């Protein structure tokens, strides 16, 4: 009943594991000192490659030695997890990371050197077992999905795209009003035929439904994807593969707020703390098309601010290039703004500072109460890939107006407006942030 | 680009709206006293039909009169919302309830009788506009989806089932490793061909993925659905239609905890406060197959409790039939329980009392601290459809053990165990709760 694709993936993964662990096994049989060497998954060993817009793991490695008392526990956990995953592979199981946590969770009883009976748990929290799975991904240089580890999956897609998944060939342009729900192991998908000019990723499922139903992807020869909120790994990997293998431009459409900007950032770069994933899950060519703060407000407040010499000085090197930005006209009228805008919350501001750094908040934020609450974020420099004139402007307008806007507001102005005017115009005029 | 199905649905809905509002329009043109009469959506007008296991709206009605100063605002909101929905229908829009909120939100300015200029908002919160949409559903006797109002949609399905959606015919047995994501307007789906013996609904997407990948639905001739957590309206309506139109048994598999039991309850009966939806969204024939508390622990603690005469007396009429329940053996060993069980939280207990009533908690709960915290729930009688011997036993074991268990634990014991033993055995022996 199981697909041939899965059987082949299992065979390959099990073989890789045998190969990578054979050294350790031999060392144990020789009663030697077994040790793992793997890249360090630390912040200090994470490098942002400005040119290729990628997060990479640096050259630092760590050792896990069985005979070092400080490392024995981690060594045990690594071997235990590897054996559970290997068993799952050969027994046709499809565990989730939650399963792997449950499967490995037990007490090991032994006598200590002083003769006392000791009980030690393999792991207590799923946090611990998840971390071991990440170690193994880095050690084996595979994504966990290639080890047939499954997870829940929210991503959906429609468009002129034929894929092969499992034993089936599926035409994603023939999904009716529904959509194709992406599988949790997107590396096992084979793209058979793609006839599209770009990929549009919509953060919100409800807006995806509207655009789909309206025939947006047919009219515009687009592939339409939704992540239904924060993107999961499979949706990210699926997008990356589409973009790579067919050289397709990728546009991301989110709410106009720091959480939306962050979702874009996850698609494009990934997260600093999980940089080893980014190398394969992130889509460096993804562009943010909106909704921009400047689509809502234009950039007058921002240009006002630039006139102030002190402000510019305080922005420092980041201020270079700001004046060269083309002027932006808002898509919304004053009356529409009044009805559609939502007041920003404290946590939106905190997220904004995490993205752009405290400096921009300090210069652009006029509200003393909010500013005071942000003091604890002083010194934060933000993500390197947000340090561009375009993003400084976006976040500056955010700090000035303390407002946010949902994509739905653009659909409320009219689905025709969103589908036939806003999105196509932004794409055709290149009004995006890269 | 829009499907013929949608055009026809629009035409029908717009016609219905014209018909239902023509009386009001005429009354307004005559400068008379326009008034709406519609069923009351109140708790007191909600009836649980024990025989058919359905929540129904009772015979009480309410009037919304334009010339009554207390009702004028609600009258205005109803007419405003109806006109926005009507416009959307004729303009090929697919609004969400969020859109409808945005579209109608504005200030109405007028001079009061004293000559003062007054500004009144049509509505402030989405809560208000949502309530008006519900009124219209009841007034028109349709689901909002039939008015082409869309929403985000989480439900997925795979199985031997061919459907027609939009202009496409889709074979849901040919989805590869992915799945078919149900459309937000399930009444527009046409079921073409179903070859299945039952429907299995799995609460958790990750477990759905595992069973799908394992070939469960092929082996067992089942249709496999996941609600990915709390079921949304479209998933519920889709299930109801499948069950009705093909006379298929429906089994629900959730976590073993009061939230899981509640999810089952939403599928089967719906919610008391939205009973008007239940008439068409609920699936009365849905059965709970697990995970039961007694699948985890057996029912020894419960039988112990029954020996206590006082306890039985306190349970009152609910105690009748408890002794006739067939004895239950647990599926898990003591060691497995130790690794898999999660401690119940205060909010789990509160949810349990909402389902079964305070009385059962009072009798079965030994932990004094928890009991004390539940005092505020005293007097709660629970949902009528949970007042059965089987559910008293389940919740009693829950209160006794203060434990819960995820479906994943059953998959951790082995996907083979879950797919080839646990689920088929429970179905073939009739070990479910109806």
Quaternary organisation of the protein chains: homodimer
* Percentage beta strand of chain A: 15-25%
Number of strands of chain A: 17
Distance between the termini of chain A: 45 Å
- CATH architecture of the largest domain in chain A, please? Orthogonal Bundle
Shape of chain A: globular
List segments of chain A where confidence is low: pLDDT < 50 over at least 5 consecutive residues: none
**Largest protein-protein interface:** A-B, 67 and 67 residues
| Helix proportion of chain A | 40-55%
Task: Provide mean pLDDT of chain A, rounded.
Answer: 92
Q: Which strand order does the major sheet of chain A show?
A: 10-7-13-12-14-15
Q: Determine the structural class of chain A based on helices, strands and strand pairing.
A: alpha+beta
Radius of gyration of chain A: 25 Å
Specify the biggest β-sheet of chain A. 6 strands, mixed
Number of helices of chain A: 19
The CATH topology annotation of the largest domain in chain A reads as Arc Repressor Mutant, subunit A
CATH class of the largest domain in chain A: Mainly Alpha
CATH superfamily of the largest domain in chain A: Winged helix-like DNA-binding domain superfamily/Winged helix DNA-binding domain
Provide the domain count of chain A: 3
